[in-house]
Amino acid sequence: MLDYTKGLYINGTWHEGVSTIQNINPSDISHNIGDVAQASKDQVYQAISAAKDSQKAWEKTALEEKAKILHNIGSELISRCDEIGEIISLEEGKTKLEGKGEAFRSGQFFQYYAGEVLRQIGENAASVRALVDVEITREAVGVVGIISPWNFPLATASWKIAPALCFGNAVIWKPANLTPASAIILADIIDKQGLPKGVFNLVLGSGKEVGEALINSSDINALSFTGSVETGRRIAVATSAHFVKCQLEMGSKNALVITDDADINVAVDCAIMGAFSGTGQKCTASSRLIITEKVYDEFIDKLKSKMATLKVGHCLDDGVFMGPVADKAQFESNFKWIQRAKDLGATLAFGGEKLNLSKDGYYMSPTLFVDTKNEWDINQEEIFAPLACAIKVKDLDEAIAKVNDTRFGLTAGIITTSLKNASIFKKEVKSGCVMINLPTAGTDYHVPFGGRKQSSFGPREQGSYAKEFYTIVKTTYVKPY
Ligand code: ADP
Q1: What is the pLDDT of residue 481?
Q2: What is the pLDDT of residue 391?
Q3: What pTM does this model have?
Q4: Least CB-packed of 13, 43, 344, 370 within 10 Å?
Q5: Is 149 in the pocket of ligand 1 (CB under 6 A)?
Q6: Residue 294 burial by CB count (10 A; 0-12/13-18/19+): exposed, middle or buried?
Q7: Which pLDDT score, from 0 to 100, does residue 146 have?
Q8: What distance in Å separates the CA atoms of residue 140 and residue 199, rounded to the nearest whole number?
């Protein structure tokens, strides 16, 4: 097992921090996965300085060498996805299947960008001036800070680290303090690839200490973040003070619309996956279910019946659909929101309870409130829980108006058998991703991902679109003689 107390990876070597924290398993809070190093601000500065010193050498490294390194990282993540997935499950709470899927998907990000290394092709243009040629090329941005969240600890980081390295940048990664073990495993895999020292660095610690040191540095050139709107706003302000490029993926309040002509069984399956998989802790979760009145009762009845079959339990137990909530703070916050929904007058149709299982963990039942109003704060604020609220509407027009009546806009879904309804929906909704007869959560890795309004800021992530953030354009004018 790796020594998590020496979990800081700075300038190509492993370091202890200035203190340690426990990494508690939310499926069994008596289980400490390990004591984990916490970096000081000085160690963050050392990592930034190492990244700065090494970045040019990495940018100049031959494309095939870069591609091989990214491919190898991806292959190891994929071949070890059972073991790495288990660690993700233990520290985050997601089920065995979800943990394994995340480790596998993380490997796919690296393999995708191994291919993308070789697809860096510039453009030429004729000049408006005689005998002059124009070349448009892309260069690495330079030193990139990456701050990732706990809900997809490895996948989110991988979809940032892989393109950052692909396009020749050096990286300082600060993962969430709730999920450091999977980060140390990825750093260990990267360590084995023989990158120039300092090109990749891992600094562990709180947002307040380590995160703040990174976002306030004038020595980084770009900062990519996934997390809450509050922290995102803080990062936008801090990075703009130094004109550091920034990319933010933040919260959302995604809606799944079920229309009169929907296949109700498809609607139920999509609502279950969208609202309750990952214990509802996804920025793409279907937290609002907007249903036309004709099918409202049928849908709610069938959804409740299906919810009753979902097994909640220890992340590694067989047959578990939903693991525990990730930590105590999130757990307590979820029950405050449940109380808030009751106070507002919402009807609790299913769940809403703490569950006492054989192990002491942060277990709760999947929860459904019905007859809620879109303007209530339970339908406006991101709750990040296995909690969905049903909203009854007259028709598709009213449904679309409600979908868009939010400060967020990451994903929006519709369940319909009508091509007309699907076409209207995809044109009218103000979201970055649209899902038709699919859950709002669950995206591919080779196409852009991101949202509108307060869900995202800056260029899109993933696929070839990632180059907009991780590269900078240079325009060269050449007069050959
Ligand atoms: P969540 O509610 O999902 O924990 P946060 O925005 O608090 O969302 O955390 C997402 C990531 O941002 C984590 O890695 C966290 O440590 C980091 N973070 C939190 N606060 C700050 C901050 N002030 N500066 C930089 N990073 C921060």
Answers
A1: 85
A2: 98
A3: 0.98
A4: 13
A5: yes
A6: middle
A7: 99
A8: 13
347-350 and 367-370 strand pairing: antiparallel
Catalytic residue among 249, 270, 382, 461: 249
Q: What is the mean pLDDT of residues 254-283?
A: 98
Using a 10 angstrom Cβ sphere, with 0-12 exposed, 13-18 middle and 19 or more buried, the burial of residue 332 is exposed
Give nearest CA residue, ligand 1 atom 27.
207
CB neighbours of 144 closer than 8 A, spacing ≥ 6? Answer: 160, 164, 169, 170, 171, 172, 220, 221, 222, 223, 224, 470
pLDDT digits (tens, 9 = 90+) for 311-332: 999 999 999 999 999 999 999 9
Nearest alpha carbon, ligand 1 atom 18: 207
> What is the average pLDDT value for the chain, to the nearest integer?
98
Verify whether residue 249 is a known catalytic residue. Answer: yes
Q: Is 228 in the pocket of ligand 1 (CB under 6 A)?
A: yes
Q: For residue 273, which amino acid is it?
A: M
Q: In this model, does residue 110 exceed pLDDT 90?
A: yes
Residues 355/312, Cβ–Cβ less than 8 Å: yes
Give, for ligand 1, the residue of 231, 252, 328, 456 to mutate: max count of ligand atoms closer than 8 Å to Cβ: 231
Catalytic residue chosen out of the listed positions 283, 315, 389, 433 = 283
- Cα-based angle 450, 456, 458 (whole degrees, multiple of 5): 90
**Residue 301 CB: number of other CB atoms within 10 A?**
13
Q: Is 246 among the residues known to form the active site?
A: no
